Each structure stands twice: as C-alpha cells, then as structure tokens.
Amino acid sequence: MEVVEFSRLVQAINKLDSPSKKVVESSKKVQTEERKHTFFKVNKKKVKIFLDEILYVESMKEYVKIHLLNSTIVTKFQIGEIEKLFKDHEFIRIHRSYFVAKSKITAFSATSVEVNGTTLPIGRSYKKIVEASFS
After folding, report:
1. Which residues neighbour 118 within 8 Å (Cβ) at sequence distance 6 or greater?
2. Is residue 24 part of a domain?
3. pLDDT higher than 90, residue 28
4. Domain count, the chain
C-alpha cells in the first residue's frame, strides 16, 4: 500500500472539484439541450431529424414528406400527428396539407407563404391563424 502526502491528496481533490471543469460540463449540457430532435422511421430505420432543420411538412394522405434544409424524407405519419408532435415548437399549420416552421417563412401574402424559395398556399380556414401569427 502506497502512502500519499496530505498536500497531494488535497491538490488532487481540488482538481476534481475545479470550477473550470464544471463550466465546461455545464456548457456541454446546454449545447445538447438546445438542439431538439426526433426520430422518424424511414425505410425500416430510425432517422434523427433536428427540428431546426425542418422547413415544412407536406401531407401525402397517410404519409408526410418532411422538407429539410438539405434533403427530404417520407415517413408514415398523418399531418395531424405531426402537428401534435410539434405543438410546443415554432410551427404553424397553414393549410390542410402543409405545416411550416415559422422561422423559415421568408415572405407571405393573403394567399401564400414563401419558404426557402417555395411558395405554399394558405388555406381559407387557416388565413386568420397565419395573419395573427405575424401581426
């Protein structure tokens, strides 16, 4: 059994309990908590989709096409289920077939919104909701 000097023991304990290490650990936790994601089943595998990469969701009957910044995925979901899944995030239903990330809308008029160069229609029953979101 090896004997350790008391001063070396105190020094080792202080290293473990140093504030700089705690700051690094807490910043890592904040970083991982900031970027929200969910997994969608695509071609028999689960694919991680970050919510901040979603431009809009397009309904295709019992499937949805999720348009991302750099790609598109198709998964078996109904748009109403997606709406419930994202209800606490910054998304807005603009049409019975479209669900859009509010932060990705670059322009809108009384009848349409523009997202990443794509024009999407605003449904008549969703017009007031869209106008209220941006007033």
Report:
1. 55, 56, 67
2. no
3. no
4. 1
The residue written with tokens 């239903």 in the block is 93
In a domain, 75, yes or no: yes
Q: pLDDT of 95-133, one tens digit each?
A: 999 999 999 999 999 899 999 999 999 999 999 988 888
Residue 38 CB neighbour total at 10 angstroms: 15
Alpha carbon distance 4, 25 (integer Å): 29
Q: How far apart are CA 99 and CA 89, in angstroms?
A: 12
**Mean pLDDT across the chain, nearest whole number?**
85
Domain that holds residue 58: 34-133
Q: Reply yes or no on whether the pLDDT at 45 is more than 60.
A: yes
Residue with the two structure tokens 């106008």:
131
